[in-house]
Task: structure prediction
Amino acid sequence: MRLLSSLFHSKRVSVNEGAAIDRRAFFSRFAVASAASAALFSRTNDASAIDELPEGVTPSNPRELLYPTPENHSVVFSPESGKFAASYPILQNVSYDSASIVWSLNTPSTGWVEWGPTPKLGKIARNSEFGLNPYEEDFLSARILGLQPNTIYYYRTATCAFSYRSAYDKTCEPAQYSDVYSFKTAGPNVEKVSFAVMNDTHNQIDTIRTLFDRFDDINPDFLVWNGDLCHRYPSSYIVKTTIANPCDRPYAAERPLILSKGNHDRWGPFAHKFTQIFTPWIQRNPRFRSLGYNVALRYGPLAIIVLDTADTKADDAPACQGLYSSTPYREQQANWLREALQQPEIANAPYLIAFCHIPLFEHTPKEDATPPAQMNWIPYHEAGRYFGPLFDEYGVQLLIAAHRHKFAYSEASPHRPWAQLLGGGPLMENATCIYAEANSNELVVNCEKLSDRSILGSWSFKPRF
Result:
């Protein structure tokens, strides 16, 4: 089913790429760094190439051999292109009154976002802190504040390569500008909304590219990346090549991208710097300021909730080595969830669905399933205990989850009044594309096999009231 987009108006305006620069001087400053990066991050399919494992050490999990780190084959943003930016802008955190833009870098830079209610722009957003404008090596971002619900805005990014030689010897190159893009803020005052979901991509570029091709056909109003974007996060390189610029296209420059973190999205050193690529959401209640990846938003007739199910292992498991605090994190999210579900724009929405990476119950019962037995909660995961009863109480209709790398769907039942849909896996033979559209009459959700677009299932939900 082809979905018609109406919520987020999209229009690109071509502009001058920016002032001319001395390219020979530019290349002389980072050619050595580019060569070193190419040598360091060139990957093969052998075991020693996975996440910089020491020579002779093989992964404990054979599946890691299926998910090698992708090489950067960017043509548009290769270091040789002379561009300071290494990706198109990524639009995220689009709420009723704010939005964030993130883009990756080829070289250390400063930058900002120019924005406004028309393509003439006229305003500037810049992440300045403590009297300093941003200076970053991998990613730049800026948050636009003071927006109005259901309103179209325009923006472009500005990037200036910056050389820091000493306190009194530094150079800022003239800005290079992106095209002008547009987006529409969230809010209740639209008649219909559409969205699409991808999950468990595990840095599989062919799968990601095929999903983006499908999204261009479907043209959803927003996109949810439902966890395990990469297999691990050894460095910023994997983020640049898998998330920021996997295939040289502006896949989220005008289509807002919403993250639902997976368990693999907390594996590796760069997982602790995740806010560089996905800026946290602003929470209404300061008590929940640390829950930057929880989302409660209204898009026309549809309300969505996004939760972070954290890791599958207990915090004191030997593999965690004291780095995780998932249990108190999920407990705090449960408190946030109750408050979010009570917000008038969420409580009064005709449709209410939730997203999280790890499912809240097993589709195939296990012998050691913990109570309540009829729910078949995942034994090693607390999320079902914390979130499931609140779904029951506040009328969630559908949970879209992932993690198992296999499509599955469970209808609502008397003891569980919400359905659960699981997306497929990272390889083309089991990857899926989920897409949906909601209007005043019904919410229709479809799941198709990505390889041949055959429909695995289609489900209709009526308004809650």
Summary: The longest strand covers residues 152-166. Helices lie at 23-41, 205-218, 236-244, 326-341, 344-347, 383-394. The mean pLDDT is 86. The first helix runs from residue 23 to 41.
